[in-house]
Amino acid sequence: MGTDSLSVRHMSKVALGAIAIVFATVWGSAWAQAPAKTFTLTVEKKRIDIGDGMTYDAWTFDGIVPGPQLRLREGDEVSVELLNHTPDAHGLNIHAAQISSEHFGGDTKATLRYKFRANVPGVFVYHCNGIPILDHIGRGMYGAVIVDPNNGWPSGPAQEITLVQSEFYGTPRANGRIIPDHTRMLEAHPNFVVFNGQLNKSGAEHPISIKVGRLVRVFFVNAGPNLASTFHVAGVMFSTVYHGGNPANLLHGIDNLVVGPSAGAVFEFKVSEPGNYRFMDLDRAHEYNGAMGVFRAEP
Fold it and tell me: Which one, out of 24, 84, 222, 244, has a CA that is 20 to 30 A from the CA of 292?
């Protein structure tokens, strides 16, 4: 082999090494400069109001069901911690986090902490990772995570609405108090299916106001824990649907989409005239048990 060939090979190795160093430096710098978000959630046992004069003996994040919404942007470096002052084991599984599930488990005597980078845009659920997970979600330990695309949503500005569908299990006592029923959870027979934690929260008496001709963007999460949801708005054809909330998963011109438990989607639409537009789960038993509400369009 000639001297020239050896020189070329040597130069190639040097060049590749330099490129690798530059790439590693740029990538490390990008990670270091990524916006940082910090969230702290606290486990709390609480009897919550679920509407129609009923209460539910819940396990919660920050005393509310659903828990606080976590809003991120694609590329954010995220730090989370879970404070648990109860005698029970709890954890925190954020479905937007691509890390080992070993991070999600909790210890009754220590604060749970971990970090992740939100690399994928979309709409995700978070929930308690305590065992059995079915009961922890069924008692109210869930919430929504929105990871906005780095360049914004392709359709531009919109009125944004978050809807979290979930299930309550247990027969109300005479005083309206509900003790969560593990057997009904196992059988996947909820007594109530609701949006945003309450029956009739956005019903005809308390509709969600929208504007005629203005784009509406619904961030939808089905927290479950058991049932799929077929989301629909009566009188509406969705202009855009992002399965999983990811703009890469694009659908146009459909009027419903099945969203499984612990999954999400984004629904976009406009209405052309004033009036009431009912939103619902098209499983009619779910609708009958509370999975419905109203958008009221005004000029």
Answer: 244
Q: What is the residue-wise DSSP string for 132-174?
A: SHHHHHHTT-EEEEEEE-TT--TT---EEEEEEEEEE-S---T
Domain spanning 159-298: which superfamily?
Cupredoxins -  blue copper proteins (2.60.40.420)
In contact, 70 and 145? CB cutoff 8 Å? yes
* DSSP H or E segment with residue 20: helix 3-33
Closest listed residue to residue 51, CA positions, set 204, 229, 176, 179 = 176
Residues contacting 202, CB < 8 A, separation 6+: 195, 196, 208, 293, 294
Residue range 209-232, pLDDT digits in tens:
999 999 999 999 999 999 999 999
User: Cα(91)–Cα(134) distance, rounded to whole angstroms?
Assistant: 13
Helix or strand (DSSP H, E) at 194: strand 192-195
- Check: CATH 2.60.40.420 for 36-148? yes
Single pTM value for the model: 0.88
CA angle, residues 185, 188, 191, in degrees to nearest 5: 75
